Amino acid sequence: MADCHYDFIIIGTGAGGGTLAYKLASSGKKILILERGNFLPKEKANWDTKQVSQKEHYRTSEVWYDKNGQAIYPLTHYFVGGNTKFYGGALFRLRERDFDQVIHQDGISPAWPLSYQDFAPYYDEAEKIYEVHGQRGLDPTEPPTNLDYPFPAISHEPYIKEIKYSLKNLDLHPFYLPIAIKLNELNRYLSKCIRCNTCDGFPCLVDAKGDADINGIRRAIAANNLKLITDAKVIKLHTSASGREVTGVEAEISGKRQIFSGHIVIVACGAINSAALLLQSANDQHPNGLANSSNLVGRYYMSHNFGVVMSLSKKPHYTSFPKTLGVNDFYWGEKDFAYPMGSIQSLGNVNKDKIAAYGPPLMPKILAEKLARHSIAWLVMTEDLPSYNNRVTWKNDTIYLEYKSNNQTAFNRLIKRWVEVLKSLQVYQEGNCAIHIPQKMGVREVGHQCGTCRFGEDPQTSVLDINCRTHDCDNLYVVDGSFFPSSAAVNPSLTIIANALRVGEHLLDRMK
After folding, report:
1. Strands (E), 183-304
2. Residue-wise pLDDT tens digits, 156-176
3. Helix (H, G, I), strand (E, B) or coil at 267
4. Across all residues in the chain, what is the average pLDDT?
């Protein structure tokens, strides 16, 4: 027996669920949001680099496993707002060609069932809701739009500005990263953001980040037709006897199990946990997992090829917020390599505790501190191609992440090419010599997870239809990064947000 019936039940409050809640809130429909975490506490630890970087204070204690049974300690977080509470706020549109079939040296990135033009108006809306700062016309790969960014670009600090001019002298096209933070540089007394050195990878103590909690859920719960229950872990979806509709959402709340029913149920737990929930909801009508007649739930998992290049120079710098610069000149390849390579972004401030966390064991504190004052970090990102065998499975009440990296030719080339560029920069000449140290990130980096419930028009080759409704269950939708058929080579958050707005519009039309 269900405890209560709702028009919409949304499971999860990240970029997909939080945005969808905001979209639906003004409809007057009765809405329930279930979030397994709580609101992230405001405390000094929010900006404590030792707590966040070294001790991973806010990371889930959950343990996943790879296909060989080796433990994975995922860098993921369960709070209202999901992983957007910790992201760097870089909100990119996919490139226009990313929606088409793309040939890579090591494989094929499939075409999406919809085009960039289908997403464009929702990208416009998403940038407004999340208060994105940027400047059009500088990134040679940016897709077309008639609208400027809602807010002006975040300025470069002096050292980053030097790097920008050095890049331009090499005939490259550096641009301002599109960033979702509440920074008013013209009237700083009106600015929520204080441009601190603990933003990228940290929760914001002053709520100045454009995340799914502050810009989505907090706005949504102002509506009296919407109810949010935190610390509510959904453990199973129940279906009718036919298996064609979800009739109950079972959640564990304060140690007790409750069942809720809804006319429409939307799963938005993140690509990994959404797939796991569908798989653990297997029943007689869906023996291989809910909505899994295609046997594709959990498959085609992607999370990007990540590398970090640390530039360590002789000259110290005092940059607080370096995450303002991007380079996409190699996104589609280069003169002697006719295949896509990927994107490059400056990362948030490098501090002693981050260096200690990723450096060799027992590094002396004084050395880590000195390295931090002389370092700038760069994120190098190449597309992770969809592979049938890269998948999420659910066994023994545990998530298993079976993953083998791919597209390594382009990834290795981009890292090597970027190191060559850095060595050529004027800012690192004339006595300010530098070394550039690349490091690849591993399977525990799941911040860009996507692809486990791909959308499409054919129920045999996709889990979701083009409106992100499952082919198998009429009232079940998945609205997070799961729907991606390919990952492209830019951050996925804005596309997840735009898609949630698009699906929200469809759901409102359906409920008329």
Report:
1. 226-229, 232-239, 246-253, 256-267
2. 999 999 999 999 999 999 999
3. strand
4. 95
User: Tokens standing for 146?
Assistant: 């008639």
Residue 238 in tokens: 């129940």
Encode 36-63: b = buried (16+ Cβ within 10 Å), e = exposed: bbebbeeeebbbbbebbbbeeebbbeee
Question: Which residues does 6 contact at the CB level (< 8 Å), separation at least 6?
Answer: 30, 31, 32, 227, 260, 261, 262, 263
Q: How much is the pLDDT for 430?
A: 73
pLDDT 10s digits, 260-319? 999 999 999 999 999 999 999 999 999 999 999 999 999 999 999 999 999 988 888 888
**How far, in Å, CA of 16 to CA of 12, rounded?**
8
DSSP 113: S
Smallest Cα–Cα separation from 372: which of 344, 352, 347? 352
Q: Could you tell me the two tokens for 485?
A: 């058929």
Q: Are 157 and 112 in contact (CB under 8 A)?
A: no
Q: Strand pairing of 246-253 and 232-239?
A: antiparallel
Q: How far apart are CA 267 and CA 269, in angstroms?
A: 6
CB 109 within 8 A of CB 383: yes
Q: Say if CB 109 and CB 300 are below 8 A apart.
A: no
Distance of alpha carbon 56 from alpha carbon 205, whole angstroms: 16
CA atoms within 13 Å, Cβ hemisphere of 36: 22
434 DSSP β-pair partners: 313
Between residues 376 and 4, the one the model is more confident about:
376
Asked if residue 342 lies in contact with residue 381, where contact means CB atoms within 8 angstroms, the answer is yes
Q: Is 333 left (phi over 0), alpha (psi -120 to 50) or beta?
A: left
pTM for the full predicted model:
0.96
Asked if pLDDT for residue 187 goes beyond 90, the answer is yes
Helix spans in 106-157 (H):
116-129
